[in-house]
Design goal:
Blueprint: E1 2-8, E2 11-18, E3 29-34, E4 37-48, E5 61-62, H1 65-92, E6 97-103, E7 109-115, H2 123-133, E8 136-141, H3 144-151, H4 175-180, H5 187-190, H6 205-219
Parallel strand pairs: 7-8
Antiparallel strand pairs: 1-2, 1-4, 3-4, 3-5, 6-7
């Protein structure tokens, strides 16, 4: 079975699908279906699953010109919906900031993602949007790390943010990782642009842990990590 990794605009994660016997190539656009409806996506990777260890949904089809034109129209319609949503938020005095909005390819659902410092009761907003835009509405509150992924930027290393370029999941990062690597516990040094601990603290943490264990074994020190 040929498995492909696909990305859609509303999700930075790789979604894996059975190629369904289609002649797929990298950067080829396809139509898939998830729990929200039809999605327009792009093939970005291939996975060899010879043992058929998992069950994958099938790619529906290679995207047609009609699919592509609908996708472009959805982008324009989503921008107009975003303006309407911001107007309603101001009228209702809600403490929330919309990051982006996204239509499924078949326009069966309109997704709004937002950030807020508090829990927001957006039920009335969802009803108003559904009434005005005539489609199913989903409002999803995301974290500050997700916002950094969407906005993008330059990290302290001088490179584009990992989260907005290649990371597909956020691993748990702890202050102990910084201590383990002998880093100064200065927030300006170990925090990213999102204000949270740098994702890259996880990259070499296992190596530092292993080296410390080996060093203790050589010097005869007791390995406290097994406690």
């Amino acid at each position: 079975m040929s498995v492909v990794g696909i990305k859609i605009d509303s999700n930075n994660k790789l979604l894996y699908y059975n190629s369904n016997g289609l002649n797929l190539k990298k950067n080829l656009t396809v139509v898939i279906e998830d729990d929200r409806g039809l999605q327009f996506g792009k093939v970005v990777s291939f996975v060899d699953d010879k043992d058929n260890r998992k069950k994958y949904d099938n790619v529906i089809r290679i995207a047609t010109k009609k699919d592509y034109m609908q996708y472009l129209k959805n982008i324009t319609d989503a921008k107009n919906a975003l303006k309407k949503c911001k107007e309603l938020i101001n009228d209702m005095g809600l403490n929330m900031s919309i990051i982006d909005t996204y239509y499924t390819l078949d326009k069966s659902l309109l997704l709004f993602r937002f950030v807020s410092d508090e829990r927001v009761d957006f039920r009335e907003l969802a009803r108003e949007l559904g009434s005005k835009l005539k489609t199913r509405i989903e409002l999803r509150q995301i974290g500050i790390r997700d916002k950094a992924r969407e906005v993008g930027g330059i990290g302290p290393c001088g490179r584009f943010l990992c989260c907005s370029t290649f990371l597909t999941d956020f691993d748990t990062v702890s202050i102990n990782m910084a201590k383990n690597q002998g880093l100064a516990l200065n927030p300006t040094k170990i925090n990213g642009v999102c204000g949270r601990l740098l994702c890259c603290l996880t990259y070499e943490n296992d190596i530092y842990t292993q080296m410390k264990k080996e060093n203790k074994n050589i010097t005869g020190e007791k390995d406290d990590s097994k406690k």
